[in-house]
Amino acid sequence: MKTDGLIQKAKVVLQMTQPCTIASSPAHPLFFSRSAILRPPFDSLRSIATMSNDKDPHLDAIFQQKRTLRSKVRKELKGMNPTQRSQEDNAIQSIILEAPWFNSSKRLCAYISCAALREVDTSRILSEILCNPAEGGHTQIRKTLYVPRVEDRNSHMRMLNISSIDDLIANSMNILEPAPVDCDGNQCKDVMQASEPVDLFLLPGLAFDRSGRRMGRGGGYYDTFLKKYQELVMERKWKQPLLVALSYSLQIMDEGIISVTPNDVPVDALVSPAGVIAISPAAMERCG
């Protein structure tokens, strides 16, 4: 169908650079700076229909709605009181760190938050995993952690395993991400080649609703990656991972506000300062 063809061809990249620093604190010696990394989003791919003779009016309308909503949410996030943002960051991370579904997860993928993009902070979560891999704090079992690495301008992203802060480097655009090889010179493990499935994804985004719709920043990185990973899980007959998005209060929209395309991957649950919103049956079972 014409629509499927357009969606398949639709590619766009969101490139944002931000200085990357790693700070220390008494509570978290491997604390990640909130200005750490480009957060390539994973909502629908922007249509190239507007640059093509093969336009689809329905898709054009959806992508225009997304652009308008993105602009609105970015403005609201920019105007968010820093004290409120910090309080919500702490509340969200505390909920996750104390959650049984987080503590029981052995293998997970998580984003490294970027202050410039006003994403929900993940520094405490990542620090707990890397600083206390076996015991102590809220981490009850040893966890395997994968974080994103952008490969090109065509929505291609990998999730690579890190076990130490030293496995992260700043690339040519000064963006912090996992190196292809770790600090010992070994090739970093790609989650797509792992012999065991991921239990949990912690995901960023610009807007969400209570039915699981998620809108990212337009690059299509996460949607593309998640579809490929879900297909791999089906081929290997593994259990699908739980997709959990982190959201400030103002990012949760009313039903019907977020438009979707077949490329958009819904989330299983949201974590906001008010608590966990379980959406899918899998989330209701694990997070309810």
Automatic annotation (TrEMBL):
UniProt-listed InterPro entries: FTHF_cligase, FTHF_cligase-like_sf, NagB/RpiA_transferase-like
Transmembrane regions listed in the UniProt entry: none
UniProtKB keywords: ATP-binding, Magnesium, Metal-binding, Nucleotide-binding
GO molecular function: 5-formyltetrahydrofolate cyclo-ligase activity; ATP binding; metal ion binding
A GO BP annotation: folic acid-containing compound biosynthetic process
Presence of the UniProt keyword Cell membrane in the record: no
Cited Pfam families: 5-FTHF_cyc-lig (PF01812)
GO cellular component: mitochondrion
E.C. designation(s): 6.3.3.2
EC category name: ligase
Keyword ATP-binding: yes
Cofactor(s), by name: Mg(2+)
Catalytic activity as recorded in UniProt: (6S)-5-formyl-5,6,7,8-tetrahydrofolate + ATP = (6R)-5,10-methenyltetrahydrofolate + ADP + phosphate
Family according to the record: Belongs to the 5-formyltetrahydrofolate cyclo-ligase family.
Protein name: 5-formyltetrahydrofolate cyclo-ligase
Organism: Tetracentron sinense (Spur-leaf)
